[in-house]
């Protein structure tokens, strides 16, 4: 692979991003966070890309933050307070960029996804994992509670299950991760790339503008009360219905033909 810390390969309307620091298990170092922010910023305005796959090089997806880099931050006069505050703020910014992207993002973890690496999986819109992948928010094992990974995790899995993972530092396997809702499904590792790409290409084949408006509304309504959510999503559907391409899609369905979309 290239020496670049983050690789991007476009396969038609699908962008494949690969965390590429395999020897260190692809940690979310300062450089990796900067690379992800840059890549997500570019994707934000890329109308040719309809879906994104996020994977890791080597034998693991992502082992979380770079602990050696974090320890080096302690050498500052303030003991690392400013560096740690900045690090976690930057990480939170990157995680929040994922649901704000117009394209659905599919995590394709294998090996391990731990601490901030598990947070990264939980922050993605979808996840297809390789069988045998282990997931954990295991910072408590070294005296660091995974408080920021907890935000994404607790929005994916039931609260008692999340709290158990956070307080015990125990790993869960793919079967349990799927039952809890952390991943959509698991496939044999040899099929991981093709399975993630197949899902991405299925999504990329839909009307991109509809997926974009739907993804935004999904995350907006989930933070609302029931009545407000219905009011908001009704307005979104009205806007969607008035599009030329939606008119064409419905007409094509009635006429039993493929739609001819402009977007």
TrEMBL record:
The GO molecular function terms of this record are: hydro-lyase activity
Which InterPro entries does this entry report, sorted A to Z? ClpP/crotonase-like_dom_sf (IPR029045), Enoyl-CoA_hydra/iso (IPR001753), Enoyl-CoA_hydra_C (IPR014748), Mitochondrial_ECH-domain (IPR052377)
**Signal sequence, renumbered to the chain:** none
Q: Name one GO biological process term.
A: fatty acid metabolic process
Recite the UniProt keywords alphabetically: Fatty acid metabolism, Lipid metabolism, Transit peptide
Q: Which domain of life is it from?
A: Bacteria
Q: Which SUPFAM superfamilies match?
A: ClpP/crotonase (SSF52096)
What Gene3D superfamilies does this protein's entry cite?
2-enoyl-CoA Hydratase, Chain A, domain 1, Lyase 2-enoyl-coa Hydratase, Chain A, domain 2
Task of the protein: May play a role in fatty acid biosynthesis and insulin sensitivity.
The UniProt entry's sequence similarity note says: Belongs to the enoyl-CoA hydratase/isomerase family.
Specify the protein name: Enoyl-CoA hydratase domain-containing protein 3, mitochondrial
- Organism per entry: Allgaiera indica
Organism lineage: Bacteria, Pseudomonadati, Pseudomonadota, Alphaproteobacteria, Rhodobacterales
């Amino acid at each position: 692979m290239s020496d670049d810390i983050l690789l991007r390969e476009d396969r038609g309307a699908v962008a494949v991003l690969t965390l590429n620091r395999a020897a260190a298990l692809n940690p979310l170092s300062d450089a990796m966070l900067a690379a992800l922010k840059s890549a997500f910023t570019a994707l934000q305005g890329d109308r040719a890309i309809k879906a994104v796959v996020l994977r890791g090089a080597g034998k693991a997806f992502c082992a979380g933050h770079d602990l050696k880099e974090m320890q080096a931050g302690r050498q500052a006069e303030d003991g690392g307070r400013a560096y740690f505050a900045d690090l976690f703020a930057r990480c939170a910014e990157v995680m929040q960029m994922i649901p704000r992207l117009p394209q659905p993002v599919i995590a394709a973890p294998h090996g391990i996804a731990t601490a901030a690496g598990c947070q990264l999986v939980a922050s993605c819109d979808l996840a297809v994992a390789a069988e045998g992948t282990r997931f954990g928010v295991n910072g408590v094992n070294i005296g660091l509670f995974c408080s920021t990974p907890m935000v994404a995790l607790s929005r994916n899995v039931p609260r008692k299950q999340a709290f158990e993972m956070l307080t015990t530092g125990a790993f869960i396997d793919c079967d349990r991760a799927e039952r809890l809702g952390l991943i959509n499904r698991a496939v044999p590792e040899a099929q991981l790339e093709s399975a993630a790409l197949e899902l991405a290409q299925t999504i990329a084949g839909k009307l991109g503008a509809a997926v974009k408006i739907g993804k935004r509304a999904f995350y907006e309504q989930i933070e609302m009360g029931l009545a407000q959510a219905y009011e908001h999503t009704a307005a979104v559907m009205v806007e969607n219905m008035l599009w030329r391409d939606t008119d064409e899609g419905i007409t094509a369905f009635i006429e039993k033909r493929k739609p001819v979309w402009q977007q």
